[in-house]
């Protein structure tokens, strides 16, 4: 679907389709594409109108087959976590694990950043242990500290700065996932492979 005259919004059936299309286009970027922003079921593609137009890009994207395309990774990040989050015991209760079991499940699988949103540097990670799927809190917090490591639904993330939030907090990291003086500022970008490791307080 065209978005104004300089962008195209592609709707997919699910997140896997979005990520496969994103990876496919990223490996062989069509002429005139300036940026791509993946989300849960959509991919927004912005263009340089002096090089291409929305109609031409729409035809090109429609011809892409992503059924068997494997997502490319864009690097690996290890995130040290002190597992003392305010919701750790609640996550244990919701999952039927004890607190140690939550920690082992969180560190025992590899996560991948699917897309970014909510705040600059906030990466939605998927692919972790399925037992860790928990609902958001009934009562969101007005202030979540920066570096908070959290779970909600199928996702994990790290809050890049203080903000309101309704995710379940299981720990904290000293790693800065967003630094405006770094290039690029975001440590967690789509395709990044993330490994959480337990750190001492």
- Count of individual helical segments: 4
Question: Whole-number radius of gyration?
Answer: 18 Å
Average pLDDT metric: 91
Biggest sheet descriptor: 4 strands, antiparallel
How is the largest sheet built, in terms of strand order?
A: 1-2-4-3
Number of strands: 13
Low-confidence stretches: none
Shape type: elongated
The residue fraction in helices comes out at 10-25%
Share of residues in strands: 25-35%
Q: Determine the N-to-C terminus distance.
A: 49 Å
Q: What is the chain-wise order of helices and strands?
A: EEHEEHEHHEEEEEEEE
Class of secondary structure makeup:
alpha+beta
Question: Describe it for me?
Answer:
The structure is a single chain. This protein is α+β, with helices and mostly antiparallel strands and 201 residues long. 19% of the residues lie in helices and 31% in strands. It has four helices and 13 strands. The chain is elongated and about 55 Å long. The termini are far apart.
Could you give a quick summary of the protein structure above?
The protein is α+β, with helices and mostly antiparallel strands and 201 residues long. 19% of the residues lie in helices and 31% in strands.
Chain-wise SSE layout:
Blueprint: E1 2-3, E2 7-11, H1 15-27, E3 33-38, E4 42-47, H2 54-62, E5 76-81, H3 88-95, H4 99-107, E6 111-116, E7 123-126, E8 141-144, E9 148-152, E10 155-158, E11 163-165, E12 168-172, E13 193-198
Parallel strand pairs: 5-13
Antiparallel strand pairs: 1-2, 2-4, 3-4, 6-7, 6-13, 8-11, 9-10, 9-12
